[in-house]
């Protein structure tokens, strides 16, 4: 468990809880309700002093954000007597900019956070308030709707410092591929049950369409072994020391396993066969490659209907083929959350706002899709399309990141998408197998030096191993020795020690 050093205890909010608690009873309405019907039947802003809230989240800043804020604030006035300032920060610089904000003690109310954005480290620094009790009081309907694994899986020392987003809870691994090419060349992707089954398909694509690379491989330092071996990350997924998904609680050095070597050798073979872009280790513009249709398939993390997201973002006709079953880890539970800053002067009102984001379809869809009639039009109940003459590239407001903002299960569906999407998500979550260490949080403090040293080694070796560019017999022993010199054995021993202690305390 992460041990908190100097974290705020939200002591300053006690007096205002008494005033505000009588005014919010939660929200309950059907998707599609408009502003005149939105919100909780008993909710009222009566007696609440006006406040201005600020929300920081990752995404492309939108030209028409002020129009959305105007509509949103007009609605919020009667609900919770608050206004909100929406602050999108480009994904590429979000982590750095928010780290500076936190370090400087900047005033703000709500910040998007996640396991992959240093959530645990920021909690240990005291950046976010303990909102365990506040969530029960100010976000009761949001909490009641969340899968319990979201709540327990995102806790640190048994307390909640972030409100998870209602979305897919689990993950599985498999393929995204261009269905147009599969149909054109008579390829039945449903026959692919393992990664090795791809080899004859890659050979066929390479021969039939030399301008298309059969596989998109990534330079990223997070190893493909996380995907190929379906590992439980035990903390940050980029750090070494993981669990196999078979119920074992023994931490392994994934890079030193026979399975890892076999997959690296398979990728190297594919690289030599020309199935992978020879510049993959240095080509960092993945979006451009996807939009250009430069490859046939990618091995990736999936969820229900993720192919529809690719259709909308990158064009072409994408399909998906699952290889592994749905699995839930602590990182999944912490994949998208909203935290309340320790500098917030109005944490209760910020949570009232988040209750509306997660339970009021008008608020939720306004933030996601903009103003009806200006940015989108309804084509049926809960189904929308871009306003006439607009698309995702020309609309003044099209963030296309519902998983960032809040409860996706009350998002509208775009025309052409599967109308049963959110039910599929619910079923997917319900049928997923949770990790045997669900709720465990790694305390990285005892191994900070070793983790930093291992990260440098991984950054040196993994990008080329990821894309098959290295001779495995030559480079893998060098990589393993460098990890050993960096202290990987201490990292694994510490992870094992903490897991054993956590299991013993259950």
Secondary structure layout plus pairing:
Layout (H helix, E strand, L loop, with lengths): L13 H7 L30 E8 L6 H16 L1 E8 L1 H14 L5 E4 L5 H6 L7 H7 L1 H6 L2 H6 L9 E2 L7 E7 H6 L14 H10 L4 E4 L8 H4 L29 H15 L13 H7 L2 E8 L3 H9 L3 E5 L4 E2 L1 H4 L3 E4 L6 H13 L1 H9 L6 E5 L2 E4 L15 H4 L7 E2 L6 H10 L2 E2 L13 H19 L5 H15 L1 H18 L1
Parallel strand pairs: 1-2, 1-3, 6-7, 9-14, 12-13
Antiparallel strand pairs: 3-10, 4-10, 5-7, 5-8, 11-12
Helix pairs in contact: 15-16, 19-20
Number of strands: 14
Beta percentage is 5-15%
The CATH class assignment of the domain at 11-166 and 332-419 is: Alpha Beta
* CATH architectural designation of the domain at 11-166 and 332-419: 3-Layer(aba) Sandwich
Query: What's the Cα radius of gyration?
Result: 24 Å
Neighbour order of strands in the largest sheet: 2-1-3-10-4
**What kind of sheet is the major sheet?**
5 strands, mixed
- Secondary-structure-based class equals alpha/beta
Query: Which residues sit in consecutive blocks of at least 5 with pLDDT less than 50?
Result: 1-42
The average pLDDT value, as a whole number, equals 89
Q: What general form does the structure show?
A: globular
| Through-space gap between termini | 12 Å
The helicity comes to 40-55%
Fourth-level CATH superfamily of the domain at 11-166 and 332-419: Periplasmic binding protein-like II
Kindly identify the CATH topology of the domain at 11-166 and 332-419: D-Maltodextrin-Binding Protein, domain 2
- The helix count comes to 21
């Amino acid at each position: 468990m992460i041990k908190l050093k100097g974290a705020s205890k939200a002591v300053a909010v006690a007096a205002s809880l008494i005033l505000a608690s009588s005014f919010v009873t939660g929200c309950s309405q059907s998707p599609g309700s408009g502003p005149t019907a939105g919100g909780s039947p008993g909710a009222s802003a009566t007696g609440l002093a006006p406040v201005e809230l600020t929300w920081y989240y990752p995404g492309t800043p939108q030209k028409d954000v002020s129009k959305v804020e105007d509509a949103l604030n007009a609605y919020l006035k009667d609900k919770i007597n608050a206004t909100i300032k929406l602050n999108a920060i480009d994904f590429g610089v979000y982590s750095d900019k928010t780290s500076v904000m936190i370090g400087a003690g900047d005033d703000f109310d709500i910040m998007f956070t996640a396991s992959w954005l240093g959530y645990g480290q920021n909690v240990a620094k005291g950046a976010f308030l303990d909102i365990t009790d506040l969530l029960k009081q100010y976000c009761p309907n949001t909490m009641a709707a969340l899968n319990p694994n979201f709540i327990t899986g995102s806790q640190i020392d048994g307390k909640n410092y972030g409100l998870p987003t209602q979305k897919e809870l689990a993950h599985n691994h498999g393929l995204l591929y261009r269905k147009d090419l599969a149909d054109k060349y008579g390829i039945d992707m449903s026959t692919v049950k393992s990664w090795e089954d791809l080899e004859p398909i890659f050979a066929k694509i390479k021969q039939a369409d030399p301008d298309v690379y059969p596989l998109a491989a990534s330079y990223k330092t997070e190893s493909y072994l996380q995907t190929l071996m379906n590992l439980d990350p035990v903390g940050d997924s980029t750090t070494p020391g993981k669990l196999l998904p078979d119920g074992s609680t023994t931490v392994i050095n994934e890079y030193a396993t026979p399975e890892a070597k076999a997959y690296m050798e398979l990728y190297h073979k594919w690289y030599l066969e020309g199935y992978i872009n020879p510049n993959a280790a240095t080509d960092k513009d993945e979006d451009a490659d996807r939009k250009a249709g430069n490859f046939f398939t990618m091995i990736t993390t999936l969820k229900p209907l993720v192919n529809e997201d690719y259709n909308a973002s990158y064009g072409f006709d994408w399909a998906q083929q699952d290889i592994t079953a749905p699995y839930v880890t602590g990182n999944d539970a912490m994949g998208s959350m909203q935290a309340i800053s320790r500098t917030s002067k109005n944490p209760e009102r910020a949570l009232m706002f988040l209750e509306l984001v997660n339970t009021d379809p008008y608020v939720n869809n306004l933030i996601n899709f903009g103003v009806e009639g200006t940015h989108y039009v309804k084509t049926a109940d809960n189904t929308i399309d871009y306003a006439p003459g607009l698309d995702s590239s020309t609309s003044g407001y099209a963030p296309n990141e519902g998983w960032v903002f809040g409860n996706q299960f009350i998002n509208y569906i775009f025309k052409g998408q599967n109308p049963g999407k959110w039910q599929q998500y619910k079923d997917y979550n319900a049928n997923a197998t949770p990790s045997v260490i669900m709720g465990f949080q790694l305390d990285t403090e005892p191994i900070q030096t070793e983790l930093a040293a291992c990260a440098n080694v991984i950054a040196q070796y993994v990008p080329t191993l990821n894309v098959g560019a290295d001779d495995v017999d030559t480079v893998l022993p060098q990589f393993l020795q460098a990890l050993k010199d960096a202290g990987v054995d201490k990292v694994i021993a510490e992870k094992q020690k903490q897991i054993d202690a956590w299991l013993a305390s259950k």
